[in-house]
TrEMBL record:
It comes from Mesobacillus foraminis. This is O-antigen/teichoic acid export membrane protein. Coiled coil: none annotated. The lineage of its organism: Bacteria, Bacillati, Bacillota, Bacilli, Bacillales. The keyword Plastid does not apply. It is found in: Cell membrane.
Amino acid sequence: MSSKLLRGTFILTLGTILSKVLGLFYVIPFYAIVGDQGTALYQYSYVPYTIFISIATAGVPLAVSKFISKYNALEEYAVGRKLFKSGILIMLASGIISFLIMYITAPGLAAMSIGSETKDAKISIEDVTTVIRAVSFALIVVPVMSLVRGFFQGHQSMGPSAVSQVVEQLVRIIFVLGGAFVVYKVMDGSLVSAVSVATFAAFIGALGSLAILGWYWYKRKSNLDKLLTEDKRTMDISLKEIYKEILLYAAPFVFVGVANPLFQFIDQVTFSRAMASVGLKDQATAAFSVLNFQTHKLVIIPVSLATAFSLTLVPSITKSFVENDRRSLNQQLDQTFQVLMYLTVPAVVGLSILAEPAFTVFYENKELGTEILRAYAPVAILFALFSVTAAILQGINEQRFTVLSLLTGLLVKLSLNIPLIQHFETEGAVLATALGYTAAILINLFVIKYFARYPFKFVARRIVLILIFSAVMGAGTLAAYEGLSELISPASKPGSILIIVICALFGAAIYAYLSFRSRLVDLLFGDKVDKIKRKLRLPI
């Protein structure tokens, strides 16, 4: 069973990574088709959609998976099936209700985003309303899809979720790019129509995913039905009790999942007004696109893998806390924070240094894009820390403080966003985000220290070492970048790709050398490193 679970986890992780990679690289051709104005319009609709979908589905696959796995272990298979049958109807109903709310409130959301005082000829309230309504249709399908994924995961079957994630992303991207290109370039349609087709792709992608899940259900139903014949039938749990348990499982993930979209939404409803108030109304649309869509897509790259790796340690944290094994708990927390920083900090340093070629490869050579990416990249560390500290709070059963920390962070962001934008323009929004996340993280760290009685002294010293190694790597990478920039222009895409590859390899070599020489990598990853060394025939 353990090998099956390990294989399933690997498959699901691989599917998630593939999905994220696809979701990153499609922005290159999409930006080439619709430009700054189109990506800004796209983001005006997608941020509210992400909030709606996070509330409707965040934690549902994991919560349903955890619930079904629990009762399957007790051989009460009918309880899981009862949840599945009723859940399909409830998720469908909640999806339709969410769709109607978003569709009806679209003009209000658009007005909040644009505002009559900042309205110009480029993007109007009516334009934003149209694209918000186009993306809202996906809400009908996605909740049901999430429930089915959770059902399969609860039966230790990760393949359906992994494949459906990749298919969903592939179908969505093909529809986004193909639809936008045909409407805008071939049919000579309006930019609003092209972006509306692109946002409607979320609905088409969800249908593709649901079709794959339906096929898996058809193929595996007979085996799932056999489990019902082995049911002990000793427990009769009401639907009220079932959904109470599901909500307890899912609630913490809702707040973590909705955090980043809420920070983005604050930018969406305040950025244009703040820019207009200091006479930068004409620059607001392009700057918003750079901030909330273009650079944000790149900043999330260092976060995803580091966070995923760190979160694999959370179950062992939960086990140590429940068993009151303080020594083991401290060791697990030490490793979690160190692995997170070890993977994230050098990636952030590299992204800041290579901001110009990175932005050029994905979009175009643009001074504003380079400046914002260089300023925004370090915030990735805060994104990762918030996700991991929130997960640790769940592990030590103090997830209620996640609500407090998130609300505090949002209040800081909301209070400072407009004055900081007025003083520092686009970089002010980045600074407000950083301060908001810092406030939330400090609360989470205080709760961890108080309730887990965790001393931060050791991990603080180790993080200082990681920062020193990252600084040395950064100095080497910067020197290589400065030298290459004299020979290769970062203003061209081919030149930028070459610069990124050479500098990234050089920086990685420096960081790896320092890590192996100091044995830091051995302390963090243990047996995994020994296996790699044996394969490479290096001294252990």
